[in-house]
Each structure stands twice: as structure tokens, then as C-alpha cells.
Amino acid sequence: xxxxxxxxxxxxxxxxxxxxxxxxxxxxxxxxxxxxxxxxxxxxxxxxxxxxxxxxxxxxxxxxxxxxxxxxxxxxxxxxxxxxxxxxxxxxxxxxxxxxxxxxxxxxxxxxxxxxxxxxxxxxxxxxxxxxxxxxxxxxxxxxxxxxxxxxxxxxxxxxxxxxxxxxxxxxxxxxxxxxxxxxxxxxxxxxxxxxxxxxxxxxxxxxxxxxxxxxxxxxxxxxxxxxxxxxxxxxxxxxxxxxxxxxxxxxxxxxxxxxxxxxxxxxxxxxxxxxxxxxxxxxx
Length: 285
Description:
The protein has 285 residues and is α+β, with helices and mostly antiparallel strands. The protein is built from four helices and 14 strands.
């Protein structure tokens, strides 16, 4: 009995000594926005700091003019990971709650600051659609990418199709507009959201030739320790292929962008999920 009590005391002492990172929340939102910021809550995953902050829209209004970022600091208060300290847009529907969860860029990060503020727009350009987005140019940009990938893929992963065992091959996002759009950034964002969801896995078929060549080398080369060679015939086949397209319809000061994503069932040949999003951008001048 005494030994059990001693163990409990030791466990409580160790828990009490766990390192707690210093944090600062810098809220520069105007008082007209009824937004509540809860947290931050923190934990360490393999010695890397993870931060979660809950954002709640307490009003009946949609907010599309908010952005946030994190800054990270080491124990001596020197900034680390400066190139990752970028502003990101935040879209809130009426009474919507969102959890922002992020891993520090390095195990050296033991302090952080969270900034949130309203975006400033220029040139009289705005987006108008069901999401009431606004912007400072007429062309497709990073904010549309954020909207398309986060909302569409998150909606897809909430489907009953996914159980954590589904494997997806990410196909091409075809750019059918007459302007340059970095579709690789779109697929990279989709892959990141899928991995973080724990609802599905993905393969990259564009790397298949490279992977197969390495497997053949490992299994045929006299220079490779065969006990460490990866076995041929163990690759997992995908259940689905996810692909899509982006189209635009343009008038003088009125641009409409539409992105479509669809999920093809490889076994049945059916399209088991499809979604579209539109952003219309109008120059109000």
C-alpha cells in the first residue's frame, strides 16, 4: 500500500513538472466582430509542440475578412521557422466554431504568438457568391485554393465512404482556364488534408515508376543487404481516384471560377462523390 502511494506521488510530481510553453494571443479584431478565442491548448508529440486554438463566431454574420498566423520562438526567445510564419485566411459561417491545430516547425520551438486580425482590401475588387468572399484582384489566388480544398475535401472525408482504410490515388486537377493556375498546389493541399484527417490514405501514382525501379534495384543488386530489401508485391492498390477541373467564365469586370472534384470507385466504375464550388469576382469600380 505504501509503495502504491509512493508511485502516485511520483507520477503527480512528474506531471506537475511537464514543460508548459509560453504563449501570447494577439487579437486585433474590431469590437464589431463577435468572435470568441478559446485556448490555446498545447501538447507535445514526439517532442514537437502542437497548439490548438478554438475560434467561435457568436453572431449570425458570415466573416470572410479574417486572417491569422503563428510565430515560433526557442527557449532564448529567438524566432524560429520564420519562413512558415505566413498569414492564412479564416472563413467563419454564422455561429460556426473552428479548431486551428498546428505543429511547430521545429522541436526547438518552446514559445509562440498567435495573431488574428482583419484583412485590408484594395482597388475596390470583391468576390461575391454564397460565401461572400472579398479580395483585392480579379484573378484566381491562394484564398480560393484555401476555400476549395478545405471545404470540399473536408466535406468529402465526412462521407460514410471513409473508415480510415480507404486508399485514394490523387489524379490530375485539370486547368481549363486561360490563365496559369498551380494545380500541384491544389493536389498538395488535398493530400495534406487527407493525411491529417486519419479517415483515408493516399498513394502517388506519379511516383510509381520511381518506386518500382528502386524495388527492383533492392531485390536484384548484390550491393544491398537482402534482409533490408523491401519485398516486391506488397504495394496497396487504391480504392478510389480523386480528380477534378477548374473552369472560368470571364466578362470585362466579372470573373466566375468553378472547381469540380469527383471520386471514382475503381471496382465499380461509379462516381461515388462529387462536389462543386464557385467563386465570382467582380470589380466594383
